[in-house]
Write a structure and sequence with these properties.
Blueprint lengths: L1 H20 L6 H22 L5 H38 L5 H30 L4 E10 L9 E5 L10 H13 L4 E5 L9 H8 L8 E4 L2 H20 L3 E3 L3 E7 L2 E7 L14 H15 L10 E5 L6 H6 L4 E4 L8 E2 L2 E2 L10 E5 L2 E5 L16 E10 L8 E3 L4
Parallel strand pairs: 1-14, 2-3, 3-4, 4-5, 7-8, 8-9, 9-13
Antiparallel strand pairs: 2-14, 6-7, 10-11, 12-13, 12-15
Helix pairs in contact: 1-2, 1-3, 2-3, 3-4, 5-6
Amino acid sequence: MRMLIISAITSLLALCVLHLLLPRLLRLRGSLLYVAAALAIHGGWWASRAELLAGGAAVAARLVATVWSVAALVIVAGGIPFLVARTLLRRVRRPTEDVDQARRRFLGGAAVPVLALTTGAGGTVASLRPFEVREEEVEIEGLPPALDGFRIGQITDVHVGDFIDADHVRRAVEAMNAAGCDLQVMTGDLIDDLTQLEATFAALERCNARHGMLAVIGNHEIWRGEQRVREAYERSAARGGVRLLLDENTVLEHGGARLRVVGVDYPMIRGGSHRVAPELREKLMRASAEKAFAGVGADGEEAILCLTHHPDFFRIAAEKGAHLTLAGHTHGGQVALLGVPIFRAAYEFMLGRYRLGRAHLYVSGGTGHWFPFRVGVPAEVTLLTLRASRPSSASRPRRAPATA
């Protein structure tokens, strides 16, 4: 409901911007048509959320609403700077013939809504494409020889709900199965619609990896119904399916070598917002680390894999001796230009590979989405292969070159 309200407000702001961009075109009749379209689109969105629409009709209503919402946002974000620039140019340029100026203003103003609709439609269509299977090799110093070539499949941020269904999860698991993963992991934000809980876990349990599937929890599970999700994980584990790691660790024996897998909880106040103050978030993460890493690395003869939803945990995991940390949460910003996320300032670790000393981090762009809009950051299933490497003197975080 919050997103619907935000979209409605943005739509009204976009109407004001359009009035300034195209005053002759968007008079009373044009404004009434715009308002009628906005009411119909947002009404369809609300009806799909209230389950008055179902199946394909509900999905179509949400997709149309997504295109409209993104277009309105682009009109506001792009139209205001355009209007400011046009006003400044008028002051420094001498006007030519009136007809030419009117035509130029119309064409310039029309370019903004055309760009907005193209962006909204293009990003929404791109979000409907199948996920990509992304291959990564991670060289780990001191990796036991038996773990050289160990393959980990990662899915994260699936968000089974309005736009993603359990069949999407099944295809992701089958992709990891086909790749011959030794271990599969799910790093949080599995589901938003709890009516699809059983079908989703049935899809996860198609995992045939030698060491099964391990998971951690994300903020969306906490919002939507943490207890029900945890109970579903417990039932799955009892059936020999997926095991949830909540501030705990487990040891996998592989060819005589040990891989310690640590799972940490999500740093948020129960029943509250995950947007906690940095100091409190650090406190929560360190409290999780104390429990999750208990007894880890005592003999120094095991490889350590940390699973976390929030990538900011990487620094603490590195301090605790984790060789590789896998995370999600950011969705890679969902929008990137020339491979660079445009919202990368929002997170210290946004997308791809990073390194701190001997410790490595991979942040997935997400296997699904709760908002169907992607540009330059495709949904992914990640296949990570562990490789032994020689000692390195690296000591500060850096983005490692990704391999496809």
